[in-house]
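Quick one, T. Sequence first:
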Amino acid sequence: MGRLKLITVLLLFPLWSFSQLSAGVDDTINPGVPVTLTATYGLVGTGINTSDDGVEGPFPIGFEFTFFGNKYTQFYVGANGWVGFTFNTRYIGINEPYRVPSPNEDRNPRDCILGPFIDLNPIQAGSPYIFYRTLGKEPTRSLVVMWCQCPMNSCLDSVATFQIILNEGSNTIENHIMEKPFCDWHGNKGTLGVQNINGSIGFAVPGYNATAWTMKKMAWKYTPVTADSFQIAQIPYDLKPITPGNKVNYHWYQGGREISEDQSMIVTPIENTTYIAYAKICAGDEFYDTVTVYVHQIIPTAFTPNNDGLNDRFKILGLPVENITRFQIQIFDRWGQVIYESNNIEEGWDGTFKGKPCPAEVYNWMIYYETNSRKDKISNKGQVMLIR
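Structure tokens:
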């Protein structure tokens, strides 16, 4: 991606693009110190493998959730886009979108959220396509169940991405749909709605009750009014940040040019440098964030190990320590003898050798780094005056 394209992309991103992707914290190093930069999108979701038209579970919600007046702590996942709270073996194999409520057809899933119910094929190569994760802290946790780039049956090149979200305390349900594409199988029909445990009561998003439709980036909220009724309202589309396996594409840019397609990369800047992390989620939503590595050009040329709390150790800058890979520092006396060495960049030399103070004079130092890939080997050297 060239500079013009990158600038265009960044201008199109809304400000909330920063809220879900983190490029890490700014860092300060000495020139050439290797720093590992890692882009992070949300928390990793647990993958669910299922059979075609299958039902999996139960899985823990992570909190108590009330649905049509009944309290639940576990849930089931239907391969075809639904989350339920009770299980019947007759639900397995059902793949045609149905209207809610459905009191006369006990084979259709009940006690469930359809978001949307469409015929999906999550057993294709690249599975799992379904993920879940409980986010947040008590008393406002959320269970997120996500279908990410899930192939549609008989339209395998068309993929659906959406989330069903259960909210603690309010017992509200959110349904965020990145895309439900066209598929002429079952007449392109789908169902967005909920129904109770016996199928006698159900509520659907108007216009999406076993009807033909396609959709991009729309969302609804189901708010319980009584034990047997919900209010349905459209809300702003905004997927909750859980990482759906390897279905996140990362890119790093520096100065308008792409420098990596990995989630993590090692850089060794010699001047202040800002890096841009870019992520595309489930081939749809795009996010970016920036991180700056500040380079402190001056490596100390003297230190005073007198335990006054000021400049007591000779250290190389490169924090936090987890960003440093394969670090080694050695201090030599005037005869070339190694009097100090360490692999810990935080430690620093205290001016002693074998527990005894070294004399005040000039010492040579050498630092060496090797990246995890062993492709980059970097060294630096200089002199430092020990003052007493």
